[in-house]
Amino acid sequence: MHKKISAGDAAGASRAVTKEDVARAAGVSHITVSRVINSPDKVAPATREKVQEYIARMGYIPNLLAGGLASRRTRIIAAVVPTIGHSIFAETVRGMSDYLMAHDYQLLLGQSDYSEQIETELVEAFIGRRVDGVVLTGVQHTAATRQRLKAAGIPVVETWDLTPDPIDMLAGFSNVDAGAAMGEYLYEQGYRRIAFVGGEDPRGVARMAGLSAALRRHRLRAPVRITVAPGSFLQGGREAMVQLATQHADVDAAFFSNDVIAAGAVLECNRRQIRIPEDIAIAGFANLDIASEINPPLTTVHVSSHRIGETAAQMMLARLGGDAAAPAPTVSDLGFSIVRRQSA
Amino acid sequence: MHKKISAGDAAGASRAVTKEDVARAAGVSHITVSRVINSPDKVAPATREKVQEYIARMGYIPNLLAGGLASRRTRIIAAVVPTIGHSIFAETVRGMSDYLMAHDYQLLLGQSDYSEQIETELVEAFIGRRVDGVVLTGVQHTAATRQRLKAAGIPVVETWDLTPDPIDMLAGFSNVDAGAAMGEYLYEQGYRRIAFVGGEDPRGVARMAGLSAALRRHRLRAPVRITVAPGSFLQGGREAMVQLATQHADVDAAFFSNDVIAAGAVLECNRRQIRIPEDIAIAGFANLDIASEINPPLTTVHVSSHRIGETAAQMMLARLGGDAAAPAPTVSDLGFSIVRRQSA
DNA sequence: CTGTTAGCGCGTTCAC
DNA sequence: GTGAACGCGCTAACAG
Fold first, then answer.
1. Do A55 and A36 form a contact (C-beta atoms < 8 A)?
2. What is the mean pLDDT of chain A?
């Protein structure tokens, strides 16, 4: 078999340097080069150093496409989040990314914009790229998503919620319980007419459901429900506060499904001279920076966005590295806690 | 050549469905399946529909690794941002992502944490994956980054700044000019002792340089420089404000390199009953949501974070789709503008 | 409009 | 410790 070997690379778009090139230059076979890269200790120190020098000098960068095709492992984990524009998910992504990079994996990120349909398309694209695993936000997905993922037979971690029926692994906390816990807290503080302000994503809905259940247990009326349009949370919170002030004067406490929305409401209260918590108590969710910085500081539900991502990544790699003998845990309930500050 | 054909997939981890499988089932050759996917109009409608049905029924997902290896195009664009935890970059990423997804490309994201060294490693990994193009934040990179990128011969877009010496393409605005413009504005408003508060990344430094130059033109003293540690911007802003109030009482205006930091300062002022702009004027940067929502609303420099991302993606795909005859523009100066509100 | 023939660059057996 | 064959699944030319 004759290979066309161009003498030098003087002309045209020079083809990328390949393992073969390095091998030839170093006077070894390409498999030796491969070993120097993937398992250096299986190569005699002398050859290793020589090869390493050629690699550096020639600027050789292994083609991971070819490697992935041959080895059926890509060292890529894919993740779908609703959007990185919301700090909670941005934090989760950072948590994953940091852990993965530290272990020589890379993160392929997709944003679903809260659409299950887009999520399905993303998952399909990810499987096409033969990612080693997929991390999803939430536990509600299309049938197609579940089916594709199961057919692909790759590890999956769902995050930010719990369910008795996960696709595979799970790293989150119970949004229903968190909503209920805040309901109990507000009840204990003496509030009796409570509103819920938030979007309509499944996790917001779950928090609302928990809140409702808690109120029901104490024979209070169902919460006033105010929906915030996607887009600017600060503005959404302000508008929600306007609604509460003008149309629901009896409400004495509001639980916001997100600290940023709550912060918007606080800003509006300050503007209108509405006293917090005397005139209305305000509770947030997520314990973001802004919760402790705003005035008055927000009572909120602490959940560790960053740790969710980190844990998801960790479970993923544990499975991939897996010891079938000592199987990694398959569910992590990361819990939550009420952080009491001055707003409620 | 005999291929081992497993009868059904009853046993074991069933190998993923391949083009070959679909072709056999549909009674065509694998290349026809390929065409149905990549250029459907080059296939007779009857065969096309038949093949499409088999594709759907068998749940076939093309292996993009193999495709990329063979075609030398991956339809992946990689991007490096300092962090997606800051909304300006999150917005830029969204702008890119939206544009790319709409054109059937995917985004591979890396976070450099403001480290040029990490950026270099990321770029190397990206090239290893044979991405079709790379988008970078800023115009300052290691020699290795520049060299790798040029050797790879792939399109590059640098963003968020301008330079006379780009690696390839450029989509940003002049941070120096923006800093200078704010300096002029503050001078016109009558402020004479001005501080600059921000981080130490190259773009912050550029804004500071522009500000300094403007002040120098008016024979004012060089700005007081307060550095904000990375981490919580709100808290950083508050701490900076404390420093200003306690150690630099003569300062009558402060230019913050970021609206979030400025917002932290505003919160601290409100807490301390420092009047804005009477006691101290506050100017931000980026024109984020929070700038218009906080009280008082912030005078700031508007730059379109989202549009930077979108434009970068657009330039990238224009180049890749490229008509060598009508070469796409290689530099986009997206400009900036001063948004005047009540804080300065 | 459809099929055939060659690789893309690498990792994985196995041998030596 | 090192090397040779083979194939991963696909696309690019060219034929027919």
1. yes
2. 92
Give the model's pLDDT for residue B76: 96
- CA atom of A24 to C1′ atom of D8, Å: 24
Residues of B in contact with A108 (CB under 8 A): 106, 108-109
pLDDT tens for each residue of B220-266 = 999 999 999 888 899 999 999 999 999 999 999 999 999 999 999 99
Rounded CA-CA distance A193/B83 in Å is 41
According to the model, what pLDDT value does residue B61 have?
92
CA B224 – CA B222 distance, rounded (Å) = 7
pLDDT, tens digit (0-9, with 9 covering 90-100), for A250-265: 999 999 999 999 999 9
Tokens found for residue B175: 């941070």
Ramachandran sector of residue A44 (left: φ over 0; alpha: ψ -120 to 50; beta: rest): beta
Number of other CB atoms surrounding residue A156 within 10 Å: 23
Q: What is the pLDDT of residue B13?
A: 44
> B93 and A83 in contact by Cβ < 8 A?
no
Helix axes B259-272, B233-247, angle to 10 degrees: 50
Q: Which domains can be identified in chain B, with CATH numbers? A: 1-62 (1.10.260.40), 75-173+306-334 (3.40.50.2300), 175-302 (3.40.50.2300)
Q: Is A147 on the interface with B (CB under 8 A)?
A: yes
In the numeric block, which tokens belong to residue B60?
Answer: 């076939």
Q: Beta strands A169-172 and A194-198: pairing type?
A: unpaired
CA B119 – CA B168 distance, rounded (Å): 17
Positions in chain B short of pLDDT 70 = 1-15, 323-326
Q: Do A264 and B93 touch (CB under 8 A)?
A: no
